[in-house]
Amino acid sequence: MTAQNHFGQTPAKTAVLGIRFGTELALLAVLVILGLNAGIGLAGRVALAVGCPVVAAVLWGIAIAPQARRRLADPLRLVVEVALFGSAAVGLGVEGSVIGAVIFAVVTIGVAVLVRVIAPGG
Question: Where does residue 76 rank: exposed (0-12), middle (13-18), buried (19+ CB within 10 A)?
Answer without folding.
Answer: exposed
